[in-house]
TrEMBL record:
Record flagged with keyword Oxidoreductase: yes
One term of GO molecular function: cytochrome-c oxidase activity
InterPro entries noted in UniProt: CcO_II, CcO_II-like_C, Cupredoxin, CuRO_UO_II, Cyt_c_oxidase_su2_TM_dom, Cyt_c_oxidase_su2_TM_sf, Cyt_o_ubiquinol_oxidase_su2
Cross-referenced Gene3D superfamilies: 1.10.287.90, Cupredoxins - blue copper proteins
Protein name per Swiss-Prot or TrEMBL: Quinol oxidase subunit 2
Function comment: Catalyzes quinol oxidation with the concomitant reduction of oxygen to water. Subunit II transfers the electrons from a quinol to the binuclear center of the catalytic subunit I.
One GO BP annotation of this record: ATP synthesis coupled electron transport
């Protein structure tokens, strides 16, 4: 009986160890948030690791004490543990189990606030950023380039090593824009414009998706972020400008309709389409100078001119 129990326990330990090894060896592109490819994602990964370490400071000792207490104070013949039914207080223990969590929460709060506020600025200051306007639709993504005056659907190309400020809104229900290898997610909401800084350090293709459930086509709300050297990006933008069709207002209204869409590229789009989309969904009821998603829309309008 004891042999069967021992072998069974060893088998469970081996399975747990194998699972742990698989998890720890999984920091490749299959686990995208653990494969940061830009400064924003690196900062957020450092915060995740810090949170995990600080949580382990509590979880591991608690689990160890649980095992120790169960073993040490189990009922057994000849148990000589002192019987103290009137015990109800320990100043030392109270200090430990209140003091340690307070310290951990304080450390997490400071680093989280510091990291969060740093992410509202460009990842690097010595490179001129570009702006891309993003509109989530059912069930597709529209990307507009105010500087290049071009647009794409379900894919976006960016220059590697250049900060990109994404202006985000929605012309359908709320969604969430997420490129895990480049940074955290940000909501897209009708009538509002949110902002998100991202940057790809190296050329490559990065997975992006909608991270908020929006109906039966939600699983297909994926897109590719293609990072290229600046020269290749400029060449691509010029080729699009020369060869792609125009995104007309009628074509945009077709895109707004619920349904899936393939990758598309356009050489131009209606002027102020992005801001008109925000106004149509309630933004026009906000007074001049008021902020959409924490940002002054009059300033955003100036950015696009």
């Amino acid at each position: 009986m004891s042999k069967r129990f021992s072998s069974g326990r060893l088998w469970r330990v081996a399975v747990l160890a194998a699972g742990l090894l698989v998890f720890l060896s999984g920091c490749d592109r299959r686990y995208l948030i653990f494969n940061p490819s830009g400064p924003v994602a690196e900062k957020e990964l450092h915060l995740i690791i810090l949170s995990a370490v600080l949580c382990a400071v509590v979880v591991i000792p608690v689990l160890g004490l649980l095992i120790f207490i169960i073993y040490r104070y189990r009922d057994k013949p000849g148990n000589k543990a002192p019987y103290t039914p009137e015990w109800n207080d320990s100043k030392i223990l109270e200090f430990v189990w209140w003091g340690v969590p307070i310290i951990i929460i304080g450390i997490l709060g400071v680093y989280t606030a510091k990291t969060t506020y740093s992410l509202v600025r460009p990842p690097v200051e010595d490179v001129k950023p570009i702006t891309i306007q993003v509109t989530s639709l059912d069930w597709k993504w529209l990307f507009q380039y105010p500087d290049q005056k071009i647009a794409t659907v379900n894919y976006v190309e960016i220059p590697a090593g250049v900060p990109v400020q994404f202006h985000l809104t929605s012309d359908q229900m709320m969604n969430s824009f997420w490129v895990p290898e480049l940074g955290g997610q940000e909501y897209t909401m009708p009538g509002m414009a949110m902002r998100l800084w991202l940057q790809a350090d190296q050329p490559g293709t990065y997975y992006g998706s909608g991270a908020n459930f929006t109906g039966k086509g939600f699983a297909h709300m994926k897109f590719k972020v293609v990072a290229k050297p600046q020269a290749r990006f400029n060449h691509w933008a010029k080729q699009v400008k020369k060869t792609a069709p125009v995104l007309t207002e009628a074509k945009y209204q077709q895109l707004v309709q619920k349904g899936l869409a393939e990758k598309q590229t356009y050489s131009s789009y209606p002027e102020k389409l992005f801001l008109d989309t925000i106004d149509r969904n309630g933004g026009k009821y906000m007074k001049p100078g008021m902020k959409h998603g924490g940002h002054d829309m009059s300033m955003m309008d100036n950015d696009n001119e």
